[in-house]
Amino acid sequence: MTFNRIYLQLRLTSRSGGRTVKYNDSTHKSENNEIEIFEQLLTIGQAIQEKVTKSPKEVYQLIVEAICRTTGADCAVLYPYHPAFGEFYDVENVVAYGLHHELPIEEKADKKRRLAARVHQKGEIIREDVKDEDPQIYEKSSFIARERIRAFMGLSLRMGENILGILYVDYRNPNSFSEEEKRVIRLFGQQATMAVANSWAFRLAALRSETVAKFRMIGQTLVAIEDPSRSLDSILNSIAHSACEVLDADMVDLYQFRQILNEFTLPPIMVGKRNYPHLVPPKIYDEDLVIEVIKKREVQYFLDAQSTASLAKGFEVPREGAPDQRFVVREEVASSAAIPLMAAGEIVGVMFVNYRIPQMFDLEQRDIIETFAAQAAIAIRNARLFQSEREQRQQSEMLRQRAQIVSSTLELETVIGSVLDQLRKVIEYESASIQLIEDDRRQLVGGRGFLVGTSPPELLRNISQDPLINRIVQEKRPFVISDTNDEPLWDHIPQTVKVKSWIGVPLVVQDQVIGLLTMDHTQVGYYTHEVAEIAAAFADHAALAVHNAELFSREQRRNRDLNVLNQSAIKLSKILDAEQVYQALLDAVIETLDCDSCTIFLAGADNRLVAHTSGEKPS
């Protein structure tokens, strides 16, 4: 109803047929009441025009206060309807007046059940004494019990087919609603309808404008982020900070995920002001939400994070050094969104957008969040591809240089030492070893970080007796242990108690495993599959260098042996004394076989053995 029509109605009550009507006292009071109502409606109308676009809650508050003042009601509550969620739960704009207790937001009106459903269906419900007329509502409604309500009028605020809210006008004593009182409440209900309608029209228009601006901002931000000269960590940090700004979030956590390896890169990128900034997840557990997001590959929104079991319940598995409370509890997160970052069908990460103020996550807000996530995923994938290509170029050049150094000599001992020294320049380690394989046996030929010759026998047992080494030899590919405590094939012995991360790489030449290259570190998670790929590339060069050096060493030994035999033959041909012949033979054998002593047994005429010994006496 427009103000002119309201004014006309009021004028008709005071004039009739062009003649002025004489009033008694009750008529005069009625006229004054009508004027007061008109003034209140006029004030509300002006407020709708001036404030409803910027401060709708102020207008709603003005309406519930005016109703109570003009009708004598004890309290009133206005629940604006949220069209995106189909609920009377516009959490930011619920207003009340005259309540004895603060209105719990969880007591939202529900259009599908309880009293709100009946008001929604009928359009209007009046209870002059709810205790007698509707004892079920009187007994079950926590609001009515808490505020001691005995009478109320509930109005469904509609404009055409659109539901805009519910207005309750409440009395703490039984109340007989006169026709005049009902008419006044309905007039204010119409004003409330206009206020909510105008508010939503403006909010939607402003939100669309803001959404367009944010989409433009997202594009500009992520285009600026994709600078090929920047590192991947720098780009990830920029994405997380931009998410906080563009999505108006309090905190953003960005987990990088390697789908091909099915593993996360820790620690995550964490931005935003935190209560416990020093707490960084050192490990991902199966019960963590991030695992569920990866498995489901879909966005999850949590309007009430504190009541969501997967976010707020205690840990199922004890976590050493971890706080007792989960993230959303200790950081007081009210609402959260968990988004898998996907590009070209590949999950490249998971982003958590966290708010300390409750969010409704309506369609527009979800659209903004998911648009940002989609473009962020593309930026991450592109940055990874560029970084991978750049690292491959750098690694290829570095490996080429190391290979030249390793292959610059054919002396086996020198090559072994060079391989281990150059390996440290490529991959950091606490200790490393090179083992050569012959049949089922292993021989330790070089090491760094420990004294060669001090290794316990169980660390060099036959391949068939060592499941871990046997697997590497059979599969002919690297084996990575990020955490030795979680690896059943790892030997837990005193000599390896400090080892937390380990890599074993086969040295393969012409599809034959000729040896092993091993590295270990005292830090859990230090070695990853990416490191193993670099180690495997280095091992290809190292295997060839070791193989060539070993062939060269064998050829040197063969030439030396032939030379010794040749010299011995010439020497023997010139000796006639039997004892001298025996001694020359013994010397030749010792030199050729590189042994400490040698004995020749000759059978005499009486079949008795005569021993001729050179070097240490046999026992």
UniProtKB/TrEMBL annotation:
InterPro entries for the chain: Bact_Sigma-Reg (IPR052016), GAF (IPR003018), GAF-like_dom_sf (IPR029016)
Superkingdom of this protein's organism: Bacteria
UniProt xrefs under SUPFAM superfamilies: GAF domain-like
GO molecular function, one term: phosphatase activity
Sections of the chain in a coiled coil: none
Domain annotation GAF: ranges: 55-206, 231-390, 411-556
Annotated keywords: Hydrolase
Protein name (record): GAF domain-containing protein
